[in-house]
Amino acid sequence: MIFSLLLVLATSCKQDDYYIDGGKAVAKFDGDILEYLESKPEPFDTIAQIIKLAGLENEFKNDNMTFFAPNDKQVRDIIGTRINARGEKIYSRLNQYLIVLNKEPIEQLSDIDSLVWKKYLMRYMFRDAYMLKDYPQIDFGQKNIFPGQLFYAYDRSLFNVGVVYGDANGVKYLGYRQLHISYVPDASRPDDNWRTAKISSSDIQPVNGVVHTLTNEALFGFDEMEFYNDVEVTRNNTN
């Protein structure tokens, strides 16, 4: 009985290990990045669909890259439409924005122009494979000492990526380590107005690169209003 309980606990810990903030364990996956996302339908089914709509399947299957993976919740938060208990349609933030501007609301993922999807997905794609250990430390309170590192994404957007070293038992920088990625809106002012997202799981390793997954709180595309405006330009008027 005790042996069985210990075996269950050990198996459970092993399965959940790489979900701990900071990526304490290595997760190998015998397939490409797109296949990895498709193998995890709960958080990534919508992202896998968007990759195909954006025409980026070849890159996700063949390029050696680091992908900071957003999840389905981040997309649903801006485009999802639901029916409440009274049978009323509750529009997403994006659709509310479109309706005010007399534009057709979004009913499905394919209603958004493929070039828009491509632009924003490429913000999460970086050439070459980088593990958590490959990124320098960042301290958002002392960026002059621990600045992280600047990288260009596939779309040439500028980002800062760095590892936050947590505290442990009152000792600075001796705690857990967690990746952070920050969108830099203005490359001429690389220290200003960052849009930062935390990484929930690090160092997932498909055969053609590395995947780091973003927390639910991250905004899709890092700039919600820019995304709304790009979608609005591609939509037809309702009358």
Question: Would you mind describing this structure in some detail?
Answer:
- The protein has 239 residues and is α+β, with helices and mostly antiparallel strands.
- The protein has eight helices and ten strands.
- Strands 1, 2, 5, 6, 7, 8, 9 and 10 form an eight-stranded mixed sheet that branches.
- Strand 6 and strand 7 form a beta hairpin.
- It starts with a helix and ends in a 5-residue tail after the last helix.
- The model is unreliable at 1-25 (pLDDT under 50).
Summarize the structure.
This protein has 239 residues and is an alpha+beta fold. The chain has eight helices and ten strands. It is globular and about 60 Å long.
Short key terms for the protein model shown above:
about 30% helix, disordered N terminus, 10 strands, about 240 residues, two-stranded antiparallel sheet
List the helices and strands and how they pair.
Layout: H1 2-16, E1 27-28, H2 33-38, H3 41-53, H4 57-62, E2 65-69, H5 72-79, E3 82-83, E4 89-90, H6 93-100, H7 114-121, E5 125-127, E6 149-152, E7 158-165, E8 177-184, E9 195-205, E10 209-214, H8 224-234
Parallel strand pairs: 1-9, 2-10
Antiparallel strand pairs: 2-5, 3-4, 6-7, 7-8, 8-9, 9-10
Which ranges are low-confidence, i.e. pLDDT below 50, for 5 or more consecutive residues?
1-25
Strand percentage: 15-25%
Main beta sheet: 8 strands, mixed
Order of helices and strands: HEHHHEHEEHHEEEEEEH
- Helix tally equals 8
What would the average pLDDT be, to the nearest integer? 88
Rg, Cα atoms, Å: 20 Å
Tell me roughly what share of residues is in helical segments.
Answer: 25-40%
Helix vs. strand class:
alpha+beta
What general form does the structure show? globular
In angstroms, what separates the terminal alpha carbons?
70 Å
